[in-house]
Amino acid sequence: MSVLPSFWLHQIDEIKPRASLRSSIEVDVAIVGGGLTGLWTARYLARLDPSLRIAVFERSYVGFGASGRNGGWVSSLFPVSFSRVEREYGSVLAGELKSSLEATVDEVGSQVEQLGIRCDFTKAGTVLLARDRAQWRRLQADVPLSSTLFDARGVERFLRANGVIGGAHEPQCATVQPAKLVRGLADRLDEMGVRIYENTDVVSFGDHALVANSHTVKARSIVVATESYTAQFAKWHRLVLPLYSMMIVTAPLNDAQYASIGSPKIGLSFADERNLVVYGQITADRRIAFGGRGAPYGYGSTITPAPERGRDMRQRLERSVRELLPGLDGVEFTHFWGGTLGVTRDWFPRIDVNEESGLIKVYGYAGDGVALTNLIGRLIAQRLLTPQLLPSVSKIFDRPPRSWEPEPLRYLGINAGLAMTQVVDSLEQRGIPTSILDSLRRTLIGQKG
Fold it and tell me: 440 burial class (0-12, 13-18, 19+ CB within 10 angstroms)?
């Protein structure tokens, strides 16, 4: 086994490789991608119809991608604001989406308990911090109805942070150790008779068929659940953009360090309202796992290990943690890692269905995927087996695909947008108006509207 790509995977006792595909086979449903989307889809398909022949094909090993590297938020958040969803789909459908996502947090918890997956699932909520006037206005404008707004003193009930002027607590959010979740789910699927092939590279697709490791797999339905890696298939190269997010984790905090941040609940997640997203959680062993975006986009949507070893990004994250939380000057950071999340041109996640070929593509979680993977896994299973029960909220994921611009426009636009986002955050901290610059950078990165 090569060097493990995240702290979460380092916490797994042993990662034993499963068998690769060694012959041509025929199944009812073939799932490409051994992450949470593919595995949840297999779970709900098998529960609805235990007689189904289901196979999952993973190029590396289960949890290698975003499912084993993310921040561990099981949240009711969505990649675009609910106010935008309401403008485009109306208040009824936007409300149904919000309710579905909130219910999904509890569904993940229920599945974890039913399946006996030990992944530190803890529903402690998330605290959203406003640290300048622009952040406070954003938080007030789009705070979920289930959240409660607090002044600076009220925020300290949950977490002590520097420079806070207000905040909100969203109770419908949990945290997990994500690698334990995805690996544990795969183990349960093994027991249920779902075949999972690792070290199996899918190279092409046909009508109701795919080719993997030089073997043909025939299937009634094929689900492509490769998220940001979807961009590595030439014919879908511009559907989704792989954007890097990086993480660090501290050593377990001593009593003084823990008290300095207000002795928060284990499992609490937190973020502030800056535009260049940061996110954190308090782990079961009292560490701070903290992540953020801003690493440059790779030309041609390439995904390489190089940005994951970037010294500049590690230093930026370490500075951000120490600047955000008091009393951590001497804290040790033990691991640094990264990976890519998938972003569509308009930031809406997609379920693309081609009835003729039997192909379903899923992509575009934009970093909010741990809960969304469960919801979408259920929607796919319903679409395939009980389409008459498909909820109306599925319409939001059925939007026609939109392509990103060709290179070099994509490279120039995204990296300019990321740089502008840092400038906007800096100006907002100083109270300088940013409306024109902010509008331009939103257009470049696809968040306009």
Answer: middle
**Pairing of β 269-272 and β 209-212:** unpaired
Cα–Cα distance measured from residue 433 to residue 430, given in angstroms and rounded to the nearest whole number: 9
Q: What is the DSSP letter of 230?
A: G
Residue 74 has phi, psi (to 5 degrees) of -100, 90
What gap in Å lies between CA 84 and CA 88, rounded to an integer?
A: 6
Residue 176 · residue 30 · CB < 8 Å: no
Going by the DSSP 8-state scheme, the letter that residue 236 receives in this structure is: G
The upper half-sphere exposure of residue 364, i.e. CA atoms within 13 Å in the direction of its Cβ, equals 28
Q: How many other CB atoms are found less than 10 A from the CB of residue 51?
A: 7
> Do you know the residue count of the chain?
449
pLDDT digits (tens, 9 = 90+) for 327-354: 998 899 999 999 999 999 999 999 999 9
Give the pLDDT confidence score for residue 446 in this predicted structure.
82
Q: Which residues contact 311 (CB under 8 A, 6 or more apart)?
A: none
Q: Find the helix or strand (DSSP H, E) in which 338 lies.
A: strand 333-343
Predicted local distance difference test score (pLDDT) of residue 309:
65
Strands 215-224, 359-363: pairing kind: parallel
Cα atoms found within 13 Å of the Cα of residue 302, Cβ hemisphere only: 12
Q: Can you tell me the distance from the alpha carbon of 392 to that of 277, in angstroms, rounded to the nearest whole number?
A: 30
Whether residue 31 contacts residue 48, with contact meaning beta carbons closer than 8 Å, is answered with no
Query: What sign has the CA pseudo-torsion 386, 388, 394, 400?
Result: positive
Q: Which amino acid is at 23?
A: S
Compute the average pLDDT of residues 186-206: 98
Give the H/E segment covering residue 362. Answer: strand 359-363
CA–CA separation, 281 and 248 (whole Å): 11
pLDDT (mean) for 59-71: 97
**Coil, strand or helix at 232:** helix
Q: Is 216 exposed, middle or buried (0-12, 13-18, 19+ CB in 10 A)?
A: middle
**Closest listed residue to residue 303, CA positions, set 21, 1, 60:** 60
Rounded distance between C-alpha atoms, residue 20 and residue 420, angstroms: 45
The yes-or-no verdict on residue 416 having pLDDT over 90 is yes
Closest C-alpha to 281, from 319, 248, 256, 259: 248
- pTM value? 0.96
